[in-house]
């Protein structure tokens, strides 16, 4: 059966040892496809000689020209490897993976040989190309191929005769403390011009000129020589809130980094020295891409300290906080964020609420609650969209005038 398939393949025309042997790639181990192809050709030649089969001899002779399946791609393996190593030379990496962009003609040729020969033992052309070029890159660059999580993917673009690189991101975890008010967590495009630049934003395209993201970004870019960064936070605090305590967990994604082996202790010092006391980062460490999703999906409890403006008595306020402690709050999306959030109803638990200080006009309160609770509306009631609230329980208006997040998680 195997020799019958091999003879059908030989009859189709000139074919290289790689493409001949690849049709039987699943049948043995310890051999390369070109070794399989040469062995198959030798066996057929021996049969032709023993049986004095002139037709088979003629077919074998005709099969030694330019390969109609791969167009002699395998004669260029060294050249592709050289191009890849040259493209990789500007990047720091420990491992890589090779991929191939097939042309329509090569894909069609492969389908034809499978259909005509009836082989069920073949591996795809691109699989062999990837492996063989990868072996050569390993030898030239002294790096290892990684099939699961490569730092860089080398793409062989056959049609355009060039090599492209897909550089996977570098992920850095940390915690940030926001020490001044008026800074959002991430870049915020201007609502009027959607980032294009207008009179309202002073042609900057931004609602706010600074963010935690943008204060960290230039230091990451300088260290890794990356194209851009993306900031991923474990939730976010309001622009007018401080983020204190141990800070809020975050991951910065450095996109297409040229440098990966950076000193995170030095980076932490440079960031903290360069942001003029506006933010502070700590606990920097390298993580994987999967940690971004874990970070975004974490349901961390929060502890807030805030100052409220009120017109109630200390007894009523203490009583309302006692009621809130251990209560499940029914909360519709706040009016202030309806323009960018779906109008949903959420249930969030207040673990505890305690009064820290009180005077005639203001009071300081500490609340420990489930993540996702809007504490400003827990105070004001948001016109009945948050139930119960301090305002509804005291029977008087109340609002937060200063807010601090003192613990996340």
Q: What is the H/E order?
A: HHHHHEHHEEEEHEEHEHEHEEEHEHE
User: In which range does the helix fraction lie?
Assistant: 25-40%
Quaternary organisation? single chain
Say what the CATH topology of the largest domain is: THUMP fold
Blueprint (SSEs and pairs):
Layout: H1 2-11, H2 17-22, H3 33-50, H4 54-62, H5 77-88, E1 95-101, H6 104-117, H7 125-141, E2 144-145, E3 152-157, E4 162-167, E5 170-178, H8 212-224, E6 228-233, E7 241-255, H9 264-274, E8 279-287, H10 290-297, E9 302-310, H11 314-324, E10 328-332, E11 345-358, E12 362-369, H12 375-380, E13 386-387, H13 390-394, E14 398-408
Parallel strand pairs: 1-2, 1-3, 7-14
Antiparallel strand pairs: 3-4, 5-7, 5-8, 6-7, 9-12, 9-14, 10-11, 10-13, 11-12
Describe, in short, the structure shown.
Strand 11 (345-358) and strand 12 form a beta hairpin. 34% of the residues lie in helices and 27% in strands.
Could you please describe the fold and organization of this structure?
- A hairpin with a 3-residue loop joins strand 11 (345-358) and strand 12.
- The radius of gyration is 33 Å and the shape is elongated.
- The relative contact order is 0.10.
- Strands 5, 6, 7, 8, 9, 10, 11, 12, 13 and 14 form a ten-stranded mixed beta sheet that branches. Strands 2-1-3-4 form a four-stranded mixed beta sheet.
- The mean pLDDT is 94.
- With 409 residues, it is α+β, with helices and mostly antiparallel strands.
- The chain has three domains: 2-167, 2-Layer Sandwich (THUMP fold); 170-297, Alpha-Beta Plaits, CATH 3.30.70.2510; 302-408, Alpha-Beta Plaits (2-Layer Sandwich), CATH 3.30.70.3190.
- It is built from 13 helices and 14 strands.
